[in-house]
Amino acid sequence: MLVVGIESSCDETAVALVKDGKEVVSSLVSSQIDIHKRFGGVVPEVAARAHLEALPSLWDEAMAGYKVSDLDGIAVTQGPGLIGALLVGVSFAKGLHQSSGVPLIPVNHVHAHLHGAFLGLEKEVQFPCLALVVSGGHTNLYRMDHPLDFQLLAVSIDDACGESFDKVARLLKLGYPGGPVIEKQARLGHGQKIPMPKMMHGSGRFEFSYSGLKTHMMRLVHHSKESWEVPDLCDAFQEEALGQIVRMVENVLKQHSDLKTFVIAGGVAANRRFRDMLEPLNVDVVAPKLEYCSDNAAMIAALGSEELKQSTKLDSSSDLEPFARYPYENYWQ
Ligand code: KG4
Ligand code: ZN
Q: Which pLDDT value is given to residue 316?
């Protein structure tokens, strides 16, 4: 089974070819980070135009040696994301589908992150499992009883975890995206001496929260009697940003004793300190290879292949529309 994936939901244009849902034949990503850097975040209209420019040549490169008629499916990110940006990928995929008759497979970007963790895995993932997408837009914890089952257990009530890394990096004038640079700075720091809140600790609720943590960091920088060093601030922030997830996972595992595997995915899953913090937990952690943590199209093709196998979400019509917001209401248990 050969499936192409097309991704254009935010600031990365990507095309990938995946065989049998697991084997990556080609995976190309064109990042717009340099274009958006000077604005301190992604500018939607600029992103859409850049996708339009990048997509045709990425397609040619990813499909080198293959024809559209060799494909069993065209998987495309339907949402969530920036509508203008999504429209570029969706229109491109629809055109291909209409001219070739190859099935069109709409893919949820957030769920696809989890399938990115399965790419190139030697062992089979054991279901049911606990699964976390921790990215710039989402902090979603799921129970998955099978590969296409996503039951929400917890989400963030305000900012996403990755978003808080980006905002704190901006506060500390460290540039964009914030995650990698905060991780690097944190390695040089000792944050234990900095007073920090424990977010959602003891609230008994299955929720994450990052907005208060960001405000706390703002106070430490602008209104504290002490002048803290940047590496120490980064270490203190990172420990709590990731620590609240670790506490939640411990709690959930106590309540769902049948979950033996924990899948992590999304940009923040690239964080080494996070992986170290998960080690003492009594669970088998499955994490994507680094290149499949942040946005890519191989994960879109991987989830698309699974959908094709189960024939659940084929869209042979031409009226596939992108959606901006993650449909939380459909995934609560
Ligand atoms: O999954 P992703 O590439 O895009 C979204 O779908 O959002 O995630 C991007 C996010 C950004 O907020 C970035 O700061 C964060 O992931 N990130 C990290 C690290 N690498 C990327 N956060 C913490 N530590 C990292 N090493
Ligand atoms: Zn993403």
A: 63
DSSP 223: S
pLDDT tens by residue, 104-125: 999 999 999 999 999 989 888 9
Residues 100 and 262: their CA atoms lie apart, in Å, by 39
By DSSP bridging, strand 139-144 and strand 2-7 are unpaired
Q: In a mutational test of the pocket of ligand 1, which residue from 165, 271, 272, 276 has the highest number of ligand atoms less than 8 Å from its CB? A: 165
CA dist 81 and 226 (Å) reads 40
Ligand 2 ion: Cβ-proximal residues, 5 Å cutoff: 135, 295
Nearest Cα to 207, choosing from 144, 157, 265, 264? 157
pLDDT 10s digits, 169-204:
999 999 888 999 999 999 999 999 999 999 877 777
Whether ligand 1 lies within 6 angstroms of the CB of 232 is answered as: no
Global pTM value: 0.95
Query: To 10 degrees, the CA torsion angle through 199, 221, 44, 87?
Result: -20
CA dihedral sign, ordered 287, 291, 294, 297:
negative
Q: Work out the average pLDDT over 253-258.
A: 94
What is the residue type of 125? Answer: V
Please report the DSSP string for 228-280 in residue order.
--HHHHHHHHHHHHHHHHHHHHHHHHHH-TT--EEEEESGGGG-HHHHHHHTT
C-alpha separations of 250 from 237, 256, 275, 280 in Å:
20, 10, 14, 10
pLDDT band per the 50, 70, 90 thresholds, residue 147: very high
Kind plus residue range of the DSSP H or E element containing 56: helix 44-62
Ligand nearest to the CA of 109: 2
- Residues in a beta bridge with 12: 31
Per the CB < 8 A criterion, the answer to whether 323 and 79 are in contact is yes
Q: How far apart are CA 162 and CA 294, in angstroms?
A: 11
